[in-house]
């Protein structure tokens, strides 16, 4: 039922002049889903208050509640089309009244970790792009048919929402920016193994895949107490995200996974001076796939001891500084980080090896990230002791990854099992840091078992990478033209 509703929503948005891509479809679905969710949350809280003999104070004024403006009902539970706005009336109400009212919550909220603040933040970042009030009416009625009341319903909705995010990621060149394959995230979490009571951080949160999967991992632990559940809801997960669309999607994704008021902050993580990070700001666990490529303003580099135009290098410094002593991290980065000979790469490898125990490097084949066009590795490290030995694992699934054959959990099962004991195999081996060149700190993946031969890629994979690089070149040229 839910799957068909999502498909029908996309079909309507596809016809609307204001929505042109998967990104728009996901964005517009998100704000409507959020308001429908908020209505369900308020109904549940009102029932709970009534059972406790208390009066519930609604977050939204009557005029702006879902069952007033979006879906007024008859006695039989069907939408009352005499009361329900449509066409220009609906569009003008949403744009002129609803969004300004909801945005104003940001200024009135008691703190940034309240649902009120999130409401204000979301509706300050988004705008209604659905130009036809008739299309908007159709979408609202489909959204109204979705239910958020049971865990089963939320679980199904969260899976469908994840599928939308995956499609959105696949729609563009920078798919990896929005979507890290969930089997990879789950494997990283199994290795890092966060515990209840630890604080988990992603400073490049994207669609919040790492935080959602970490919540699922911890929430599935047997015998959780009421205090444990409260800790997971309020004192465990922290994310930061610069881009407006990703920020909103992250919040909606976490809500659908069961986190009521997600602690995601809309900010540029890299604008934070590393010297300002104090002990109280540090985390037990960092899980992240920071964006690759030099897209940050040059003046932000002053905040980092190792200057670089590569955003992933700035993020890596931020993550090392953000970990408490004994903290653990799993971070995705381009594989060229291991071998580049420029000053920043060498200095950063030296910092990592001397201040952290880089115990594991997972080498991923090309095609792991749809549409990204780069080869990546995952760095696993603990902060506070220098690296003595690095265990490498070279993933070889025996096939080329692509849209029709994506990475799955079974592909990573051998890695997760062997990593527990740093076991040697045809795909895994250990390297003593004492044997690494102290002038370059080169950490290249060199399989002593002969497994580092270049894998033959399919013509489709090669064409995808060429297209991705062409698109990137086009963006750079446009940027240069803009400066002339």
From TrEMBL:
Classification via InterPro entries: D12N6_MeTrfase_N, DNA_Adenine_Mtase, DNA_methylase_A-5, DNA_methylase_N6_adenine_CS, SAM-dependent_MTases_sf, T1MK-like_N_sf
EC number(s) stated in the UniProt entry for this protein: 2.1.1.72
- Which GO MF terms are attached to this record? methyltransferase activity
**Origin: domain of life:** Bacteria
Looking at the record, the residues that make up the DNA methylase adenine-specific domain are 154-449
Residues covered by the N6 adenine-specific DNA methyltransferase N-terminal domain: 7-143
Q: Which Gene Ontology BP annotations are present?
A: methylation
Query: What's the catalysed reaction?
Result: a 2'-deoxyadenosine in DNA + S-adenosyl-L-methionine = an N(6)-methyl-2'-deoxyadenosine in DNA + S-adenosyl-L-homocysteine + H(+)
Tell whether Calcium is among the UniProt keywords.
Answer: no
The record lists the membrane-crossing segments as none
What keywords are assigned to this protein? Methyltransferase, Restriction system, S-adenosyl-L-methionine, Transferase
Similarity remark? Belongs to the N(4)/N(6)-methyltransferase family.
Name of this protein: site-specific DNA-methyltransferase (adenine-specific)
List the source organism: Lysobacter koreensis
């Amino acid at each position: 039922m839910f799957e068909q509703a999502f498909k029908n929503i996309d079909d309507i948005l596809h016809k609307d002049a204001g929505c042109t891509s998967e990104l728009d479809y996901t964005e517009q679905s998100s704000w409507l889903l959020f308001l429908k969710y908020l209505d369900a949350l308020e109904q549940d809280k009102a029932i709970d208050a009534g059972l406790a003999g208390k009066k519930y104070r609604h977050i939204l004024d009557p005029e702006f509640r879902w069952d007033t403006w979006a879906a007024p009902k008859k006695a039989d539970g069907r939408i009352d089309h005499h009361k329900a706005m449509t066409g220009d009336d609906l569009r003008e109400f949403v744009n002129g009244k609803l969004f300004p009212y909801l945005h104003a919550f940001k200024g009135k909220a008691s703190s940034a970790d309240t649902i009120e603040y999130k409401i204000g933040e979301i509706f300050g970042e988004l705008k209604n792009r659905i130009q036809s009030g008739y299309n908007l009416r159709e979408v609202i009625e489909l959204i109204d048919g979705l239910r958020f009341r049971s865990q089963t319903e939320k679980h199904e909705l969260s899976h469908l929402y994840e599928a939308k995010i995956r499609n959105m990621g696949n729609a563009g060149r920078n798919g990896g920016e929005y979507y890290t394959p969930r089997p990879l995230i789950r494997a990283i979490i199994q290795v890092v193994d966060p515990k209840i009571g630890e604080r988990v951080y992603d400073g490049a949160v994207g669609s919040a895949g790492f935080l959602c999967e970490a919540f699922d991992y911890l929430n599935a632990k047997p015998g959780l107490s009421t205090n444990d559940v409260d800790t997971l809801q309020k004192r465990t997960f922290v994310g930061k995200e610069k881009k407006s669309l990703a920020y909103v999607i992250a919040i909606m994704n976490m809500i659908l996974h069961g986190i009521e008021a997600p602690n995601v902050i809309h900010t540029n993580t890299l604008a934070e001076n590393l010297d300002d990070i104090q002990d109280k700001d540090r985390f037990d666990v960092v899980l992240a796939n920071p964006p690759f490529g030099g897209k940050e303003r040059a003046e932000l580099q002053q905040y980092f001891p190792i200057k670089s135009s590569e955003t992933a290098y700035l993020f890596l410094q931020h993550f090392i500084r953000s970990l408490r002593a004994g903290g653990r991290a799993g971070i995705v980065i381009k594989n060229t980080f291991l071998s580049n000979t420029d000053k920043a790469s060498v200095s950063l490898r030296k910092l990592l090896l001397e201040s952290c125990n880089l115990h594991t490097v997972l080498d991923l084949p090309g095609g792991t990230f749809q549409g990204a066009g780069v080869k990546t590795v995952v760095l696993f490290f603990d902060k506070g002791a220098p690296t003595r030995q690095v265990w490498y694992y070279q993933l070889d699934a025996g096939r080329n990854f692509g849209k029709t054959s994506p990475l799955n959990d079974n592909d990573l099962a051998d890695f997760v099992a062997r990593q527990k004991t740093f076991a040697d195999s045809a795909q895994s081996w250990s390297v003593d840091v004492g044997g690494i060149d102290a002038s370059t700190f080169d950490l290249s993946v060199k399989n002593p078992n002969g497994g580092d031969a270049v894998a033959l890629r399919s013509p489709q994979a090669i064409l995808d990478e060429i297209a991705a690089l062409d698109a990137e070149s086009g963006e750079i040229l446009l940027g240069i033209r803009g400066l002339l």
